[in-house]
Amino acid sequence: MVDRRTAMVLDDAMPRWWRHEVHSIALAAPRRRVIEAADDLTWGEVPFFHGVLTVMGLGLKRLPEQDRVLSMFERGGYEIIHRGDDELVGAGLLRLSLHQKPMDLGANPVAGFRALAEPGVKVALNFFYRDGCLRTETRVQPTTSGARLVFLPYWLGVRAGGGLIRRSWLKGIRQRSQQP
Q1: Domains of the chain with bracketed CATH
Q2: What are the respective helix, strand and coil percentages of the chain, to the nearest 5?
Q3: CA 121 and chain centroid, separation
Q4: Distance between CA 82 and CA 111 in Å, rounded?
Q5: What are phi and psi of 108, to 5 degrees?
Q6: Backbone phi, then psi, for 85, in 5-degree steps?
């Protein structure tokens, strides 16, 4: 039986995964304010994350400081599949071909994502706030062995930088959620 006091929607959306990464930060703020801060955070509030992406993109893609961080993911084919008082969940499918159609998750996006079996790598991430701790987790699950082989070098290459980015992201959320 699942303990609903600690269960996350992320567990329902992606109960099994191949690789994952978890980071957390202590903060004191109302639950709803923390999750709203995660949803509304702008590039100007995460200068390290913003700088890394600017350098990686060699300055070709400008990320305006007033734009929401999550809007970049949404433009890239990810969807926010759950917004609740204590959790925000985003999900997407990294495709193996440019010719694949966009995700269609149906009327229940959490169940639709869980059932998604198209070729690629399923990626889900969340921000979960409980008892003064904001936790973020990223889970990945290739849907084919070919997708796993293609994705593995990427995953191994971004882990260290990804951790620094996530901690920067969490600090930005903490600062935003504690503003009056």
Answers
A1: 9-177 (3.30.530)
A2: 40, 25, 35
A3: 14
A4: 11
A5: -115, 90
A6: -65, -30
Length of the chain: 180
Which amino acid type is present at position 84? G
DSSP state of 45: G
Gap between the Cα atoms of 123 and 38, Å rounded: 18
Structure tokens at 109: 């996006």
d(Cα 77, Cα 12) in Å, to the nearest integer? 20
Where would I find the H helices in the chain?
9-13, 31-40, 47-56, 69-75, 109-115, 145-177
Give the pair of three-digit tokens for residue 116. 């998604």
Residue with tokens 């701790």: 133
Query: Would you say 80 and 108 are in contact if contact means Cβ atoms under 8 Å apart?
Result: no
CA 76 to chain centre: 12
pLDDT, tens digit, 9 for 90 and up, residues 71-112: 988 888 899 999 999 999 999 998 877 777 778 899 999 999
Number of H helices, E strands in the chain: 6, 5
* Ramachandran category for residue 67: left, alpha or beta (phi over 0 → left; psi -120 to 50 → alpha): beta
Q: How far apart are CA 170 and CA 148, in angstroms?
A: 28
pLDDT in tens, 110-169: 999 999 998 999 999 999 999 999 999 999 999 999 999 988 888 887 777 788 889 999
